[in-house]
Amino acid sequence: xxxxxxxxxxxxxxxxxxxxxxxxxxxxxxxxxxxxxxxxxxxxxxxxxxxxxxxxxxxxxxxxxxxxxxxxxxxxxxxxxxxxxxxxxxxxxxxxxxxxxxxxxxxxxxxxxxxxxxxxxxxxxxxxxx
Length: 130
What we know:
The chain is built from seven helices and four strands, in the order αααβαβαβαβα. With 130 residues, the protein is mainly alpha-helical. The protein has a two-stranded antiparallel ribbon. Strands 3-4 form a two-stranded antiparallel ribbon. It starts with a helix and ends in an 8-residue tail after the last helix. Residues 50-128 form the DM2 domain. This is SWIB. It holds the Pfam family SWIB. It comes from Musa troglodytarum.
């Protein structure tokens, strides 16, 4: 069990030392707290790739989302926001989504879709890059 919590204890001890040093107001405390508080602040921002990479979308998706390019994950999030905002989930079966006219333009004019089908049905709206 000690191996599991060992990393947490190390991080907690470093944070505690940084807090004590910050209260003391020394120059070293600023360096320690900066190093401990945010390791990502010193590192370069990671480049998005795969499904996180923003890519151009089809005209129908562009009209729906209002942006010329977006990542697949962000597109699914925006579609879910629309579905929840317009209460398009079937109340009896939450896995089923009732499509309105705006969603039908994205989902091949289907009246109902399953929630797990969304990722598959938006694939044609993200053209393959050559």
